[in-house]
Design brief:
single chain; Topoisomerase I, domain 2; Topoisomerase I, domain 3; 5 domains; 6-stranded antiparallel β-barrel; 17 helices
Length: 724
């Protein structure tokens, strides 16, 4: 019997497929892309309809030769890289390398790596999808044109080693714009007043002031707060309104790529790249005891929330078995996929609902278990009934004995879960508060007023979850690109993470964004980028020729680029005059220049004078967007006052005498907590050599307390490690 050859991307997936396909199939892995644009030249002929010059990826020649040898012995060749545009490109390039006859090559799409799913795909193969491949090639060309055309300008006009990306630059703009909003934010003071009241049944109620004489109140300062407290203390309170409402919380649809990344970030602190790496492992197969390799989830790069009918029935059966008929709606919930979604694959769900997370926990890593459990519970919860909540709203009005008119009105809201529905397995943050039985006109005795000072806060920095959500909302990127977008701008040192894993633009990232916004606004325009994503979708769906899309983009882009090479001045972008005299040549005043890792002072007399020194700045931005002073220490080596510099992992103290003295010291941020180990030192935010944040005692090495997780109380020992 002749053998068939199956070619996938991953060795793990190949191993799983061998188990299902048997001895009549040879399964090989390409290890990802085998061809790509050349790394050291453009590789796109702009004078020949943007024809591309692909070359074999370094280290892949032997893999291709081995695949060719096996292909000669095979009766049928099945190309089975991942079922997305990147996978289609890999399949296309393998087919080109084999040079086999078209009737000998088939494309198979595995939406799940299970025996049933694999055999069904092999039995119903398709042909290579040319338009899907052209959409991927178009994206690659557009990204290459932007990167190779703008990056040299950044090298020449800003600093060597910089680069720009078509979509990554837009994501950078999102982060920079948010940071500017934070810095421009004006903090305003406001006050709230809570009241503790006792009912006739000696039950306590806590309510908040929200109206004075039937008008909503805004308390701007302490004086207004004190005046109101004095008036309210003279009032007698009566229950004036009792309202009951039935509220519902609806289950959310099963995961798509973006929502999985968001939940994994919010609930487990996973970055987008880590989430996708773990999901790929669950998709390709995990060793489950005697079962061997088992693919646990469906394909994880998807924007569709639909599930196959067979999967829906399987989930409903599990719900009845585990939770009873009360937790199963009469009709399955059908979710509608968004209008512009590619809708090429199902939602992310378990391949087999009988494989519960806890039963296979010993076979999974901690992170694999956490992610699989999220996917498992979300799939079940999506088909369970709504949660029913009884909301009780109580209003209490104060009456001044002298006037007899209502003055202060307080309100409290109580929530009671009447039926938990999908919350049975997928809890959400619903604050339950029971309110004792009350009647209209019932008196309530004021026992205490609690005025509290507050300050308005700027919009928060983006984290992985909120950035992916914002990119998706704006139509920037697609399921397979969210994680690479974030990783790229992190690796380029255009952004860093703060101690709360939120993104901060670096100085160099801010300047790169400034150049692009001012001189290439079309490239980083939100609507334009979303439009280009739609154009790529149109190519994949045969609605538009790919050359037309590239041509429409490149012609105005090239004209603007030529213009900017002549107009843009490096000094204008990267230099700023100061009144500090150069201490070496004493002929010039120093200028502020921009390097790869931030700003520094330099003599404009270069190359005759080579003096440089760190830029002295003793301010940094706090989490609420305001500036705070940092008390710089003395250098341990030369006793000079240290200054703040910024490197690839954020700000740090450096000796003023650099390069003569190269001593540095980390900036320690206290979190207002005594060390739980020694009880004498303070817990401060620290970073490892690789830039990862942790919490430790500032008396180290005398005390070795260290924790990956932020301690919440002085008695917390969760996540504590010791170097001893």
């Amino acid at each position: 019997m002749s053998k068939s050859l199956v070619i996938v991307e991953s060795p793990t997936k190949a191993k799983t497929l061998k188990k299902y396909l048997g001895k009549d199939f040879t399964v090989m892995a390409s290890g990802g892309h085998i061809k790509d644009l050349p790394p050291k030249k453009l590789g796109v002929d702009i004078n020949d309809n943007f024809s591309v010059e692909y070359e074999i990826v370094k280290g892949k020649k032997k893999i291709i030769d081995d695949i060719k040898k096996s292909a000669k012995l095979a009766d049928k060749i099945y190309l089975a890289p991942d079922p997305d545009r990147e996978g289609e490109a890999i399949a296309w390039h393998i087919a080109e390398s084999l040079g086999a006859k078209n009737n000998n090559i088939f494309r198979v799409l595995f939406s799940e790596i299970t025996k049933k799913g694999v055999l069904a795909a092999i039995e119903h193969p398709t042909k290579l999808n040319k338009t899907k491949y052209e959409a991927q090639v178009t994206r690659r060309i557009l990204d290459r044109l932007v990167g190779y055309k703008i990056s040299p300008l950044l090298w020449k006009k800003v600093s060597r080693g910089l680069s720009a990306g078509r979509v990554q630059s837009v994501a950078l703009r999102v982060i920079v714009d948010r940071e500017r909003d934070r810095l421009a934010f004006k903090v305003e003071e406001y006050w709230t007043i809570d009241a503790r009241l006792e009912t006739n049944q000696k039950k306590e109620l806590v309510a908040s002031l929200f109206k004075i004489n039937d008008e909503k109140i805004q308390i701007k300062n302490e004086g207004e707060s004190k005046s109101l407290v004095e008036d309210i203390e003279r009032q007698v309170f009566t229950i004036t309104d009792i309202t009951k409402k039935e509220r519902k919380r609806y289950p959310q649809p099963p995961y798509i790529t973006s929502t999985l990344q968001q939940d994994a970030s919010r609930k487990h602190g996973f970055g987008a790249e880590r989430t996708m790496r773990i999901a790929q492992q669950l998709y390709e197969g995990i060793e489950i005891g005697s079962e061997g390799l088992v693919g646990l989830i469906t394909y994880m790069r998807t924007d569709s929330i639909r599930s196959a009918d067979e999967a829906l029935m399987g989930i409903r059966d599990v719900i009845v078995q585990k939770y009873g008929k009360d937790y199963l709606p009469d009709i399955p919930t059908i979710y509608k996929t968004k209008k512009r979604a590619q809708d090429a694959h199902e939602a992310i769900r378990p391949t087999d609902l009988t494989i519960e997370p806890d039963t296979i926990k010993p076979h999974l890593t901690s992170n694999q278990y956490k992610l699989y459990r999220l996917i498992f519970e979300r799939a079940l919860a999506s088909l369970m009934p709504d949660a029913e909540i009884i909301q009780k709203i109580i209003e209490m009005s104060g009456f001044d004995n002298n006037q007899g008119n209502p003055s202060a009105i307080f309100k409290t809201i109580g929530n009671t879960i009447h039926f938990d529905g999908f919350l049975k397995i997928y809890p959400l943050s619903i604050k339950e508060q029971s309110i004792p039985p009350l009647t209209l006109e019932e008196k309530a005795t004021l026992t205490k007023l609690q005025p509290q000072q507050h300050f308005t806060e700027p919009p928060p920095r983006y984290n992985d979850a909120s950035l992916v959500k914002e990119l998706e909302r704006r139509g920037i990127g697609r399921p397979s690109t969210y994680a690479p977008i974030i990783e790229t701008i992190l690796k380029r040192n255009y952004i860093t993470r703060d101690e709360n894993k939120r993104f901060i633009p670096t100085e160099i990232g801010t300047v790169v964004n400034q150049v692009l916004v001012e001189h290439f606004p079309h490239i980083v325009d939100y609507d334009f980028t979303a439009h280009m994503e739609n154009e790529l979708d149109d190519i994949a769906h045969k609605h538009k020729p790919w050359v037309d899309v590239v041509q429409e983009f490149f012609v105005p882009f090239e004209k603007n680029l030529e213009k900017k090479y002549k107009e843009v001045s490096k000094k204008e972008l990267t230099e700023e005059k100061t009144d500090i005299q150069c201490p070496l040549c004493k002929k010039h005043n120093l200028i502020i220049k921009l390097g790869r890792y931030g700003r520094f002072l330099a003599c404009p007399g270069f190359p005759d004078c080579t003096h440089t020194q760190p830029l002295e700045t003793q301010q940094t931005s706090t989490q609420n967007g305001q500036k705070e002073e940092i008390d710089a220490p003395l250098c341990d080596t030369c006793n000079e006052k240290m200054i703040i510099k910024e490197g690839r992992f954020g700000k740090f103290f450096a000796c003023k005498n650099y390069p003569k003295c190269k001593n540095t010291k980390a900036i320690e941020k206290k979190i207002n907590m005594k060390c739980p180990l020694c009880t004498e030192g303070d817990v401060v935010v620290k970073r490892t050599k690789r830039g990862k944040t942790f919490y430790g005692c500032n008396t180290y090495p005398d005390c070795t307390f260290a924790s990956w997780k932020k301690p919440e109380t002085e008695n917390s020992e969760q996540g504590i490690t010791s170097s001893e």
